[in-house]
Design a protein that fits this description.
This protein is mainly β. 6% of the residues lie in helices and 47% in strands. A hairpin with a 3-residue loop joins strand 10 and strand 11.
Amino acid sequence: MRSLLAGLAALVLPCVAVVPVHAQEQAAGATVTVANMAFAPAKVRVGMGETVTWTFQDTISHTATSDEGFFDTGAASGGASRGVRFASAGAFAYHCSFHSMMVGKVTVPMVATGSVKDGWKLRWRVGDNPKGRTYDVQQRRAGTKTWSLFRNQTVSGSGWFDPGSGSWQVRARTIKKDRSSGWSPTLNLS
């Protein structure tokens, strides 16, 4: 029952939520150790709805603060952990607000179900959409260089994509007011 309630709560959290994390409560995702004035690993990839947990080992305080204002763990040290749930696709660069040389990135890919024959259901967000959050989604035929818009500043978290035959690529980014994440890793549809 407890895991069912936790799962339901995860569905209604905003696209990025910062929470204190206890070791026994860590969700699927990735763990970043903050020690010796560095994030290790500096780059992680998680699925939509998964959590990145930063464990702050140094005795001096650090933060994991989004370059574009999507999240901020707040200052922590001495073994404290903070988790951020990533519910939308994109590439989220971050830094320590006290030590500018400490940088990292979280990438979150889109998800697609379907087939070339039947079309694809694309998902670039899970859960409810936070106020003021929109998404851009781009498409291109595999092997070409030019991206075109599939969705522009949509509040929807998914859409039906049926380009007909051939191999395609899609990617998405998350927008908060006038700032956007980087593009998610390219998803190949074939």
